[in-house]
Structures are given as structure tokens and as C-alpha cells.
User: What shape does this take?
Amino acid sequence: MKRFLVIINFLAALTVIAWGVERYVAPAIAEAVYSTRYKKLMFQCDHVMREHFIAKQMVLVSTTEANIRNLDAAEIGLTTCHDYDKLRKTMIGWSVSENALAQIGLEAIEQSANDVRTFVEIHEIRY
Assistant: This one.
């Protein structure tokens, strides 16, 4: 009976340790490893989505060969968003929370926005 209790206690301790690793250690490691790349891809994806939106609006306004080429180039640029999405899902798989990812994204914007005008330009859509 005593041996059984020792085994149960050992398994309970292993369970708590595994839970702690998944809950606290894995997300911290993932953030440390991936946050710089995540910030870069998030910022690039935001930029190419804005450029794509503008290029699409330009084609709707005036369907010229130059505007169509710009739209094609902008669509190719959207592959950055695929890389960003894959990395985001990898980080979520390592138990990084949506709130932590949002915080990392805001840090990327803050690091890239040296002044108020740049910060506004990052967030606005021009067409």
C-alpha cells in the first residue's frame, strides 16, 4: 500500500511539473525564441496588406497596365502574411496566449514608430 501511495504521489508531482512547463515555461521560451521574427513578420504583413489594399483601389479607379502590375506585385507580397500566420500558429502551439501575441505586435509597432506621424501612418489606410 505504501509503495502504491509513493507511485501516486510521484505521478501527481510529474503531472504538476508537466502542467507548469506547458503553462509557464514553454510560452516563455517560445516568446524568447520567436518574438523578434514575429515582430518583423507582423509589421511586414501589415505593410503589404495596406499596399495590396491601395493597389486594388487603384485598379478599381483606373485599370492601367501599371496599376495591374502593382496589384500583382502586392499580391505576391502577401506571402509574408502566410509566413506570419504560420509563425503565429507555431507560437500558439507553444501555449503563447493571444494577449501575449497582441502585446508583442504592439511592441513591434512602437519600435517602428519613432514619432506620432509614423505611428498614424502605420495604422491608417490610404487610397
